[in-house]
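pasting for ref
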Amino acid sequence: MQHHSVIIAGGGPGGLGVAATLEGWHPRFEGKYEFPSPEVQQFARKHEQNPLALDPHELLERGHRPIEFYRMRHHPIQGALPLDEWTLKFTKNTRTDWLMLTTDGPGGLWNNTPKEQMTLGPAHWMELAHYPIGKFYQQTARDRDINALVHRNDLILYYQAFAEELGLNDHIRSGIKVTNVLPADDHIDARFIVEAVNQATGEETKYSCDYVVFGVGPRSAIRKLNANGVDNSYVSLAYTHTDDYTGDRVMVVGGGRSADWAAQELHDAGKIVVYVMRQKPESHLKLINDSQFLPYYQRWAEILAGAQERMGLLYESNITAFEPGGLTTINTREGLIQLQVDHVVVEIGGDPDYEILSSYGDLTFHVKRDNFRLQLNQLVVDQATFESVDIPGIYPAGYSAQGTGLSVIGFHAGCFLIAGDILRKSGAI
């Protein structure tokens, strides 16, 4: 059984930022910068050559959020900073023994998004500070606006380049799904046992470690549709691209942003779309109206303002059965109806796979919601370190940690709190 000081579960941006910091890329503050609070400014100047050595509890005790301490150096203004104006720099130090186990490789769940998916925020929101996305654009001769949305293909290549640029790839095991985290037995000189399975071969492996970074992503456990016949061949449990769905009539089941994307793209590809949603129409219309800064919601407004000859919207409805041959049964406000379709796309979202931690019993969650129908049960953590309040040594990363919000710009700086705490506890800084 291999032992590593840190096992990182998940290859998304939450885990990648921790990996880069543990690899030895430690932040420092340079040049002229100013925090809004003179007290925080004093802390920053005192530790600017090694801010990871600062115990962030000192900030928390004085009413300052430690994650904002780092975020403000990465994103001090609303727009993107030119590369030559960055005051957040990095120094290479000795690496800590870490290993990343990921199903999808660098980029995590972005590797499985629809083929034409765009981000919900600008490019510089998506970057990890150790390797700015503007630098990636320069090095790969991409003529892109770092204040614009990013195509998923560019974003995946960025995360892959991030791992290559910072020397992470030798310590990333792709195609590996973490299935369980357990307390180690007394005869094992470690705190945790991590069980994992090779998705290609089915081979099971166990690792021992002292710390676990829980970064499996917000959709690592896909929700299941409670309907008969989901295993019919015409039913797909995730949307990919319009070319993957034969025939003219496609049903989309969902109601979140991913389902909105699928329904709009299929409609614009010439399909007749039936969109089945549990929500009320006013909730959907509010999201569309509040999201006009995104091109595909601008397009939704155009579709709704038109004749809607190829877009049928069934609100407050749910699928009860998929019959052979494409016959579907739907429970609507007016009663049961049946529709014949060529294909069904089920996009009902997912949740973090907290079953991985089930051996520790009931966990403490923070229910997080935003105005754009994103919702998540986040693990309650120490706001200075992001260590779980329930399981010492477990560090939720990314969206699964309380205090990060539900925007990527909110959680990236958490990597410094997590890595810093591990480094201080292990005596590395």
